[in-house]
Amino acid sequence: MANAFRARGTALLRQGRGIPLFSVFGIRVVADYTWFLIVALIATTLTIGWFPTTLPDRAPVHYILLGVPTALFFFASVLVHELSHSVVAVLSGIPVRKITLFLFGGIAEISREPSDPGTELRVALAGPVMSAALAAGFWIAYVAMGDESSRPGLQLAILYLALANSFLLGFNLLPGLPLDGGRILRAIVWKITGSLRRATFLASTVGKVIAGLLILAGIVGVLSRAYVLPGLWFVFIALFLRHAADRSYRQVLVREALAGIGVTSVMVTDVVSVPPDITLSELIEIYLLRHHYTAYPVVDGDIPLGVISVRLVKRVPQGAWRTTSVAQAMHPLTDVITLSLRDTLPTAMQKMAASGLGKLPVIEDGRLVGVVTKRDIASYLEVRSDLSS
């Protein structure tokens, strides 16, 4: 449900999945494969349910011509909702890598969470404000067409979009993470208490309570056979909500545990690097299949040039691996993918999220001095947790 399910790293959204659609304000929009399934489901529901029920005695092709565009307009509303969050985030100095449309709506991949409650509140409010504007616009259009409209099919499509956006607005404003209402609640409690951890715990707990109520409602619907399909849908959504709410709190705990700890605590200095002039086929044979790392710094002599990863290799058509060099496929060095010896682990995690890379080079005085990986950070956290338990 639109921004409600923005938790990054969910298992449903594996890196690299999906089809690129377009870019808006520099933000890439990608359709996960599961999105096409939900579009087809909504379009089918409209075609064989909503329109035949509200506008009977029409030819099947008429319902198709109404149902498919209405479904697409509904998901356009979801995208506009998510774009509102993303644009406000970018204007607040928070980079947004992309928006992925998937089974439960939309998810924005941001490089970091807001650093203060004011920014959190602005970003959280942006989506509901847009949904409210869309719902109001559709309601006004529906009423303006009157009771005796000469285009009843269009009027019913507008009515559906008014109802759908009103539902999205109401659902997203429920006060539990990861819903927009949960982020609004967290921002308010954060401002009052000064503690992001307390605020996230409260909003996450409310989110899990909401998920529990949805599961209960779904089970009742299935067992009573009153609303079997919606009941199953309630359960799926609730399980996703519960996972995302729990994950939101764990992320804050991780950020607090790593605060102030430098990258030198986990940095590996014995680095396997690759030259820029070998082909991707040679990279796979000599490095990927032998060393089993998923990413490597690219170094020309003593000069670091970029990072090459399995994900970047897979972006190149397999038939071109023998003719494409590492230099052509690598991610060039930028501030987003490099660390210094003075950086902290939270900074490293933010840059990994922003770049989509699990391994970042540490550069000092223009030279490669080590690398930091997600795996090393996770191992560091695990050891600290074991020692404190």
Annotate the secondary structure layout.
Elements: E1 19-24, E2 27-31, H1 33-54, H2 60-91, E3 96-102, E4 105-110, H3 117-144, H4 152-172, H5 180-193, H6 196-224, H7 228-258, H8 280-291, E5 295-300, E6 303-309, H9 310-314, H10 326-329, E7 331-332, H11 345-355, E8 359-364, E9 367-373, H12 374-388
Parallel strand pairs: 2-3
Antiparallel strand pairs: 1-2, 3-4, 5-6, 6-7, 8-9
Helix pairs in contact: 1-2, 2-3, 2-4, 3-4, 3-5, 5-6, 6-7
Stretches with pLDDT under 50, minimum 5 residues: 1-16
Major β-sheet strand ordering: 1-2-3-4
What's the structural domain tally? Answer: 3
Query: Largest sheet, described in full?
Result: 4 strands, mixed
Radius of gyration in whole Å, from Cα? 24 Å
In N-to-C order, the SSE pattern is EEHHEEHHHHHHEEHHEHEEH
What would you call the structural class?
Answer: alpha+beta
How many DSSP-defined strands?
9
Individual helix count: 12
- Mass-distribution shape: globular
Helix content: 55-70%
Question: Hey, roughly how much beta strand do the residues contain?
Answer: 5-15%
Distance between the termini: 38 Å
Mean pLDDT over the residues: 88
